[in-house]
Specification:
globular; single chain; two-stranded antiparallel ribbon; 8-stranded antiparallel sheet; alpha+beta; Pnp Oxidase, Chain A; 39% strand
Length: 166
Amino acid sequence: MERIEPNKLTENFFETFSSEWMLITAGDKEHFNTMTANWGGIGYLWNKPVVFIFVRPERYTFEFTEKKDYFTISFLGEENKDVHKICGSKSGRDTDKIEETGLKPITTELGNVIFEQGRLTLECKKLYSEVIKKESFMDAELVEKWYTHKGNPHVMYVAEIVNAWK
């Protein structure tokens, strides 16, 4: 993997997040979990390159994301959709996702987990988190579609991209 400066990323993240999906991974090499997600984005906030992601509290990865200051995001390419299917449909509470998917974990200098298969990986330091509030929506249809019958509201994390690899 080649390290690149976050501000040099030229990816079409609209396409990457929506169709390629990502793995959100939190924890350390001894104990971590990863999950598939596709809600999020990248931008510039507080004079920093940032990513924002959304995780529901019932997801096992949420526990790790809450406990640690960092998480990683790995984009594996379209050819790894089978990995995303497993990591998005099974819980790490009762499934060894690494064994089942064949993912090859690597530990970063900061102690976070990324994967050898990542075509683009971002290491992120949490800056802000907030529970999505149903009463703050301007469009009530979004609440009905995503939160009335589908579980707890997501927690949104805004995190500084501190390292990036291609």
